[in-house]
Structures are given as structure tokens and as C-alpha cells.
Structure prediction request, 301 residues.
Amino acid sequence: MAVFGMAMALIVFDIIMRLIMIEKKTAAKYKPVEEVTPANGFYGTFTIGPDAGDEQDDGSMSPVKRQDEPDRVPLLSDPSKAPAGKKSKMPTILVLLGMPRLLAAIYGIFVNVSILAAFDGVLPLYVKRLFGWNSLNAGLMFLCLAVPALSGPLVGKLSDKVGPRWIAVAGCSLTAPPLVLLRIVAHDSVEQIVLLCGLLVCCGFTLILIVSPVAADLSAVVEEKEKADPDAFGPGGAYAQAFALFNCAMAAATLFGPVFAGALIEAYGWGVMTTAMGAFAFSGAIPAFFYTGGWIFAKKT
Prediction:
């Protein structure tokens, strides 16, 4: 009962935070508008000449001096000459799915959540069979994965400083070795328990390197697409749909991870399962290397 009560409390807290959250388009209404004043201090087409205030001999005022020819701009433009906007006819979801950089971010979070979900499915049963642990002891093992995740803000700061590409690549690449080395944990002893905890801590620190870069890059790719083509997603933008794809990837990973790991461990054993998960983790580094932060061979302007 206490477990479900804690889960319900977190859900209620999440709902309250979502209700008080201020969206970007709502906050934009209250942003002060900066007034732009021309350099000459006038808003019209004409400027006052140096002799405008001096009367001529006949008592008339000197004529007003016009601005230079290149600075004159017609007040009303010809609609027929205005460039036509290229509004995409494709659904926004298909436009997003056609962006390799966004797919790389989605695959990165898919790899991350799949590995964590695989641990949820197979680790408690394995330590119960190997060490004879109960539910409490098996649950405490997940502290080795959860505590390193508290370093997420530091990873985010590092990603903002050096860019998301190499942080994400490092996260996927460095997750593979401790996953493969988990195959060594094969008998009941204190040394094996310490080794298991140490390898899980390593996995916790490397997995957190994946989340922050790919999540930040998901927003960046949508923002850059809107700047390059304002009509690509329409007036409502595409941030919500991009993060919806992100959540779909997490949901699919929650299903894939335990099923994939469970099938491997039942058919081939713990060692094959950990090796396969290590190779799966390393596969996330390939799209991250080429696309996270932008196409790696793109010419920088």
C-alpha cells in the first residue's frame, strides 16, 4: 500500500506542476516590446536640413531636404512582388520523422530507457536466483543506478559548454564496457556483490551522459528548422509533437527493454544478455556521432 501511495503522490505533484507551468507562447504576451528609434531621430521620410530654421531674404522658409535615395523605402509594397511563403503540405509528424538529427535524438533516448527497463525486468530475478536476495535487497541495488543520475545538472552544464555531440557519443560508448563486464558476476560471494554494485554505478554515470544532450538537441533541431523555414510547422510550432515522439520512444523502450533482455537471458543466459545489451548501447553512439548537434560534415558558417 505504501508503494502505491508514494507513486500516487508523485503523480499528483506532477499534475500540479504541469498546471502552474507557464508556456512559452503565454509568457511571450508579457514580454516588454523594445522600441526602435531611427538613428536620425525621425520616423518620417524626410529630415530637416541644416538651414530649415533660417528664414530666407524673401521671408519664406527654406525647403526641407530629402533623405538620400538608397534610404527611401515605399510605405506600401506591391503584393504581387512579395515572396510567396512555402508552407509544407506534409503533416508535421512526417516532417519531424524526416529529420535525421531528430531521429538520432529519439534513438539515443530509446537506447537509454531500454537499458534501464532491461535492468528492471531481469536484475531483481537474477540477484534473487544468484544471491538469494529478497525484494528489499534487490530494490536497493537500483540505488547504484539512481544516485549517479543526480549528476544530471552537471552533465547538462558540460553539454551546453562543449556541445551535445561528444557527450552523447561518450555516454553510449562508455556504457558498453560495464554492461559487457556484468557477465563476470556469476556466483555468490561478497566480491561478486561488490563487483555488481561497482559496474551498476558505472552504468549509472554513463547512462546519464546520454539524456541531457539528446533532450537539448531535440529542442535545438526544431528551433533551427523554424528559423530556416518559418512555415515548416505552421503558427503553432512543433515542440509538443517533437517531445511527443520523444515520449513515444521512451514508451517503446519500456516495452522493448524487458522483453528483449528477458528473452535473451531465458534462451542463452546472463552472459549473452549483458553482451548484447553492451552492443546495443554502443549502437547509439553511431547516429549520435554523425547527427547530434548537426551533421558532422556540414560546412560551418
Notes: The first helix runs from residue 2 to 20. DSSP finds twelve helices and no strands in the chain.
